[in-house]
Amino acid sequence: MSDGIIRIRDLARRYVMGQETVQALRGVSLEIRRNEYVAIMGPSGSGKSTMMNVLGCLDTPTSGEYWLNGHEVSRLSDDALARVRNKEIGFVFQTFNLLPRASALSNVELPLVYAGMRTRERRERAAAALERVGLANRMDHRPNELSGGQRQRVAIARALVNQPSILLADEPTGNLDSVTSEEIMRTFAELHGQGQTVVMVTHEPDIAAHAARVVVLRDGRVESDRSTERAAA
Amino acid sequence: MAAASLRTNKLRSALTILGVVIGVATVMAVASIVQGIRSQIFNAIEVAGPQVFYVIRFFSSVPLNPDRLPYEVRIRPIVSPEDAVAVRRVPQVSYAALWAQVNVRLEYEGERTQMMIVYAADDRFMEIVGGTLLSGRLFTRGEQAAGDRVIVLESDVARHLFGRVDPIGEVVRANGKAFRVIGVYQQPENIFQPPGQAMAGAIPYPAARENLHYDETNALFIAVKARTGVPVPEARDAVTVALRRVRNLRPGTPNTFDLMTQDQILDVVGKFTTYFFVAMVALSSVALLVGGIGVMAIMMVSVTDRTREIGLRKALGATRREVLWQFLVEAATLTLAGGLLGIVLGLLAGEAVKAVFGFHSAVPLWSAVLATVVSIGIGLIFGLVPANRAARMDPVEALRHE
Predict the structure, then answer these.
(1) Superfamily of domain A35-57+77-232 in the CATH hierarchy
(2) What 3-state class would DSSP assign to B295?
(3) Which of residues 127-186 of A touch B (CB under 8 A)?
(4) For the residues of B208-229, what is the DSSP string, one character each?
(5) Do A56 and B315 lie within an 8 Å CB cutoff?
(6) What is the pLDDT of residues A102-144, one digit of tens each?
């Protein structure tokens, strides 16, 4: 048995939209090992959003297998998937998706609430996660009191707080300027350096270049899968 | 921006729970008033003396149309002086006399009362009914026997008719007949009187028979006082036996008269106030229903507004049940706030009404508990549809929602 934290075989996802059937993924096979840093790229319509949703257990494939951290998750019920997301996956979104009326600390605590953790332990873990992304002095701030980069780092802290198997980022720099984007990419690199598995979906080549491996999708299939110079270095 | 939306939401929430506030306030006010009326009547009856009961032609603990009484009730004989004599001979009875309740309006120099009750009684009137003589005197045996046109006025009526003039010795008119005021009497303090049924005073029974018109079938009754130390049920049984004998009723046939005791009056009062309370609760439940529908509508809007938040929570690991509960709790919090506000408003309204009518009572605790439970329940019931919609959202689509 390999140490593939993500193992996908012949994955297909069809959508029925009215009369039409859309083939978003047409048989993708992919293996991502522990502590890899992978970027998934592709033009719009290539199936990378669907790929992201399936990898994040937000959606289930029409056919094929998906093994996440040793468990087959492609046929689970909604609530079972919710549990898997809570335990195994840390999401980072393009639009941050923070709760506007909650403090940074409360936002980071949220996954732990659904994990059923006690308030006190929750606080400690959330504070530690915020420290890890350099926001120890911003815990009581609300999202509207933070800059875009700080908001995204709160979101990263939230993604990490439950120690997920994979950090799954969807266009994490799409709403940020280039300087801030570089900051976020540095944070990702640090996390990767600490052993975190990172999977990032993006359409920007210079962002994807930060990853050690780039998978390019086109028309629902893997077009190319190669290591970058970073990995070689 | 966020603060502004919070304020808008506050106003929106306040309007939403208005129905719940009104419904709960109504129930609380009614509960408080009904409780006040009850304790007032119960006190009044207890003050009137536990040894007293009445023999009347017909008494029902449920309201019946007096024009459509059952046949066996309509053929009952009128309560007669002979009946009173028979009752008076019962050893367990210390007092029994034929009285009448006469509806009249009293007049004095252009001042006129509402239609009120005048008791046609005798010299021992106050002993039976209770109360205190404020001035003057009660009629004498001589006046009683002769049927003199004298009247003992109730103090409120006296004040209304005479103002500052001393009523003693003045003449009031009832049905055009002159009655000389010989005394002013105050009712037991706690008597609660519905409007229009108030008691105006007492006159000798023969004076009423000769001078006033009344319907003998319903106005006549025998006031009975059991001897001290004799339990009322025992006296009642003895009176029943005596009346059946004087009326020649064969064994096995029903009584042709009714006894009205305090227990029964309390029972009637209890039933009446309960019906009243239930009717008011039914009416205010319409407000609660409207409030519930309002909560449902606003929660629907809230769920749509927060689609992305729901998607996020699901992405972070919230199960359907957890999302469902979140929105149920929000709806219940909203209606609970409405309920608590309604309880406060209802209590204030109830106290105001009781202050106007001058009686006091504690508000039953159960009504506050019930109102709280009901308002939470409304939130849970009417929040169910929107909460279920939130719980069933597809996380992918919810996160994509603009």
Answers:
(1) P-loop containing nucleotide triphosphate hydrolases (3.40.50.300)
(2) helix
(3) 142, 144, 158, 162
(4) HHHH----HHHHEEEEEEEPTT
(5) yes
(6) 999 999 999 999 999 999 999 999 999 999 999 999 999 999 9
